[in-house]
Amino acid sequence: MQDLISVVIPVYNCGPYLDDCLNSLVAQTWQDWEAILVDDGSTDDSPVKCDAWAKRDPRVRVIHQQNQGVSAARNAGIDVAKGQYLAFVDADDWVEPEYLAILHRILGSTQLAICCVYDTSDWNEKVRDEVVSLQTLRTTPSRYANPVYINYPCNKLFLTEIVQENQLRFPEHVRRCEDAYFVQDYLLCCREISVTAKKMYRYVQRDGSAMHSFYEGVCDDEIPLMQRQYELFHGQPLTETEEQAYGLWEWGKVLAIVRYIARYSPNYSICKKYISQLIDSTDRFCLFVSTSRIAGKKSFFYRLLLQLRFYGLLRWLVRRN
């Protein structure tokens, strides 16, 4: 008999996509799985579809709860998981037939298995087949400061024992990047991580998601995460080359947040407010210092962001309004 893998699937108004998601589990070459569908207060036909699937396949279980957000839904699934292993799939995504089998195979004696995802970024192209120690990951941000490793939970296979013993949960007060908080907590419980460059998770972006509509807590969620990720890669001093690589990666994160605020904020004053909050907060954490030679000073990147704030961004806003 194969080991049981618990697949937690948060469901919120995913009726049009749910069948494709669950059919991709039914098609798995690894058949000893349970799917825990957590209906998070859906207002479409998702609850009915969840119950229909539970009647159709005994491996499918359903939890219905009031709407509390994706983190609470995943946590509810974790709490009832029976498998030795834990995976997460979003209800509007789907997985390749060997998703569970390959992740289980490469996991071996390590504590976490990672695969690549189908998306439009180039992050996956930097991934290779390997077993990497946590120490190497933390001291090599040039390779591992990459969402494939440190953000997504849905391209990974976790050990349920580690999650339960360390009481790891998704933060329910966080709406953006809650997955990165959970993954980082888990990584710090690992000794070694197994990785395959094979793409096995089909990620679908939908309009109206948290990543594609304005959220006033964006800085409250993103800034503490940036601080935590800084600490992940600074458990000990980095080489100058790695410090510079981390600084460039971090700068990319800041620009991504700026772009999000500029694109989705409803008006000029709100956009200016949140850009200012981002700059002021990240300056306090000194997160733009990319080498020890400029420690304690505003870096070139920070000055460039200020220019973006006061010139490029404002010109863009004037045109928009």
Keywords for this entry:
single chain, 321 residues, alpha/beta, Spore Coat Polysaccharide Biosynthesis Protein SpsA, Chain A, 2 domains, 9-stranded mixed β-sheet, 13 helices
Structure notes:
The protein is an alpha/beta fold and 321 residues long. It folds into two domains: 206 residues, Spore Coat Polysaccharide Biosynthesis Protein SpsA, Chain A; 107 residues, no CATH class. 47% of the residues lie in helices and 17% in strands. The chain contains 13 helices and nine strands. Strands 1, 2, 3, 4, 5, 6, 7, 8 and 9 form a nine-stranded mixed sheet that branches. Helix 1 links the parallel strand 1 and strand 2. Helix 1 runs parallel beside helix 2, helix 9 packs parallel to helix 10 and helix 10 packs antiparallel against helix 11.
The gist of it:
This protein is of the alpha/beta class. It has 13 helices and 9 strands.
Could you outline the blueprint of secondary structure elements for this entry?
Blueprint lengths: L4 E7 L3 H12 L6 E8 L5 H11 L3 E6 L4 H11 L4 E4 L5 E2 L3 H9 L4 E7 L11 E4 H6 L1 H4 L2 H4 L5 E4 H6 L12 H10 L4 E11 L15 H15 L7 H25 L3 H18 L14 H21 L1
Parallel strand pairs: 1-2, 1-4, 2-3, 6-9
Antiparallel strand pairs: 4-8, 5-9, 6-8, 7-9
Helix pairs in contact: 1-2, 9-10, 10-11, 10-12, 11-12, 12-13
